Amino acid sequence: MATAAIERPQCRTSPTAFQALKEYLAEHPEERLQHPHKWDVSRSDIYYNDTWQPIFKEMREAGPLHYIDESPFGPYWAVVQHKAIQHIEALPDIFSSSWEKGGITILERLSDEQLAEMGREKFELPMFIAMDRPQHTGQRRTVAPKFTPSGMTEMEEEIRQRTGELLDTLPRGKVFDWVDTVSIELTTGMLAILFGFPWEDRRLLTYWSDWSGDTELATVRDLDQMRQGILREMGAYFQSLWIERTMAKEPSDDLISMMIHSPAMNQMSPEEFMGNLVLLIVGGNDTTRNTMSGIIHAFDKFPDQRKLFEEHPELIPNAVQECIRYQTPLAHMRRTCTEDTEVFGQQIKKGDKVVLWYISANRDEEVFENPDKLDIERENARRHLAFGYGIHRCVGARLAELQLRVLLEEMHKRRMRVHVAGDVERVRANFVHGFRKLEVEITAF
After folding, report:
1. Biggest alpha carbon distance in the chain?
2. DSSP 34
3. What is the pLDDT of residues 183-199, one digit of tens each?
4. SS3 for 358?
5. E strand or H helix at 424, and its extent?
6. Where are the domains of the chain?
7. In what order do the strands lie in the sheet with 176-177?
C-alpha cells in the first residue's frame, strides 16, 4: 500500500505547554503551594528565576543527600553531591527506575484510590529508561545501534550541511530569538530524520516534547488532562507511521522501523509505544536544544571564554563537554528504593523517592574547581553527569555531542559572534532546564 493511502490524524498545535502553565499561574496565584522546607528544590520558580545555585551549594556543604519531608510532589530524598549520585546510579537493583514503582521524575505516583478520589483516570507511559533489567536491556539494545560511533560518522555530513544552511540564513544587525530560529529548528529537524517523520509536520515534535517534559503541568488537573489528550494525539499520529512502515516494501533504518523489527519492542502496548516516543522525543529534543541555547547565553556571560573559543577552535570538543556540564539540560532523575538500605550514613526505606539532582552534581566543588564559571579548558569537563551514569546513561549522548560540536565548528567557520540582545526567558520546570526565549544579535569576530 502506498504511504499516501494512510490517513494521518489531525493534531493540535496550541496552546503551547509554556503558555498554558503561564496563564494558569497568572489566574490562580493563590493555588501555588507554599514551600515550608528551605531546601525543597522541586519548586520551579528557582529555575525560572535562575536562583537555584546558592540553595544547592548550601545543601552540598551540609552533606551528600537530604530528606525533604514536604513538597508539592510529596516527600523525597534530594541527592546533591557528585559521588553520591554515581554511587546510587551504580546500584540499579536497589534504586529502581521502573515506572511501576514511580518512574524517573519527581512526580508522585498516585494509587488507584487516590485517582478515584480526584476523579482522574490512570495514565501511565512505560518507557525503557523507566524500566529495570532485563526489560530495559532489550529495549535499549533496539535503538542503541542508531547512536554508535559508526552511526555518528554516517550522520555527520548531513548534520553539518543542515547546520551550515541554517546559519547562513540568520540575519545580521537584527535581533531574533535564537531558541526558536536555531535551537528548536536544528534539533526538531534531527528528530524528524531519526524517526523518518514527515518534514512538513516536524514542529509537532517540538510541541509534543514541551507537553511531555513539563512536570509541573501534571500537578494541575485541567492541564494534566489536556496533556494526556495531546499525548494521545501524538500516539495516534505515530501509530499511522507505524502502519506505513509495517506495510513498506523496502526496509528502513529509522527508529520506528527498528522498533517494528525488534522482538523486544514490536509487541508494545499503545501506552508503552507512547512512553518510548516521549523518551526519544524529549531526550532528543529538549536536551540538545537547551544546551544549544545555553552555549550562547554562557558565552555572552563569560566573554573571556567566547574569545578563547574564537582564538582556539581546537578547544571546541572540550567546550562542548563544558557547556553540557554548565547547562545541565535535565535537572534531575528519580529512583525508588526497593529495600531498606543505608547510603552515606542515611537510612533510606523501601519505597522512598530518591531524586538525583544532576544540576547540583555538575556544580560540585569537590569535583569541579570554580564550578559556577564556564571554563572551556576545564581538564575534567567530561566528568559531568548531565547524561546520567551507569546502565541508564543517555543512549543518544554521542548524537547530542556531535550536534553541539558541529554547531560550534560551523559558527566558528563563519566567524559568528552571538550577543544576548533582548529578552531571556527560562523554562519554568524542575525537570527540563533551559530557555524559552533568548533574543540575540549576530556580529563578526
Report:
1. 64
2. P
3. 999 999 999 999 999 99
4. helix
5. strand 416-426
6. 3-444
7. 176-177, 435-444, 416-426
